[in-house]
Amino acid sequence: xxxxxxxxxxxxxxxxxxxxxxxxxxxxxxxxxxxxxxxxxxxxxxxxxxxxxxxxxxxxxxxxxxxxxxxxxxxxxxxxxxxxxxxxxxxxxxxxxxxxxxxxxxxxxxxxxxxxxxxxxxxxxxxxxxxxxxxxxxxxxxxxxxxxxxxxxxxxxxxxxxxxxxxxxxxxxxxxxxxxxxxxxxxxxxxxxxxxxxxxxxxxxxxxxxxxxxxxxxxxxxxxxxxxxxxxxxxxxxxxxxxxxxxxxxxxxxxxxxxxxxxxxxxxxxxxxxxxxxxxxxxxxxxxxxxxxxxxxxxxxxxxxxxxxxxxxxxxxxxxxxxxxxxxxxxxxxxxxxxxxxxxxxxxxxxxxxxxxxxxxxxxxxxxxxxxxxxxxxxxxx
Length: 382
Prior knowledge:
Strand order of the largest sheet: 4-11-10-9-8-7-6-5
Number of domains: 1
CATH topology: TIM Barrel
CATH superfamily: Aldolase class I
Radius of gyration: 20 Å
Largest sheet: 8 strands, parallel
Helix content: 40-55%
Strand content: 5-15%
């Protein structure tokens, strides 16, 4: 199977499975407990039908929108995700360049494998920094200061990782950051020599935004779930979130909102955007899917903040459904991580291009010349 054989996100997933050691693949692919929510995130879109309109004269369409104060060329962007150097040696550099080429936002995680200064200098494209609040307040301040110095457009405070989710695939494989090679998993790494040579012979793995403050995750192996539980500040509350908002003078997003009451409180503390998200089903299994939560949240706060649907997006039609409900944009992680693992920057470029083409084709088939033409009149729930 080659990159040119990939025509949808599931194809990229299949190629990533061939390229990655199984502990690394399962880290991307897996979720919490029985993975009910991970499946539900995608299935939620299938329970909603599109109602196309015809004879609309759609030779030209406009899919541009504005998010985090930046104009973007398509209503889909790349969510911040951790540890990208483990999936392909190009890591965040590939993702940043691909997003900039496509005219959309790239999200960079606190647990990124390049520093914020390098990320800021790499492209002039729109960039979102995702903040995990650590027990080390000096680390929290340092990351916000670095994001400001690097001229990031916005900060997203993740609020759904107060403890790590029970990611059983990672427990079975022993996956850690950095990888810990054991008798149990060594064969899975050994049979993927391309991955192993790139990991061992290229630049040393690290989490540079953290490494000056904490060794865990960067030089001391730790599972991501254990990292969240032991290193993040479990006393994080609305008062603290409001304080962090005051420390950042640009667009500010809360990532991990699925309750209407929390969306309203996000407005109260001055958030300019919310990402309706359940962390890809990796935290609380059995929680509501972002698309299922979207309508109530849009009705409550959609005229006050930018509402982003994050999770379960694998098709352009998923984006159209979320926009028809009232989302300003959509985002996802696995949709480009599979492509990154499959073929680096070329893979991410192809995945974005395919999704963009699906959005454009879907808009034409829906009779929508612009995003403003999409509304709930286009939808029917089963």
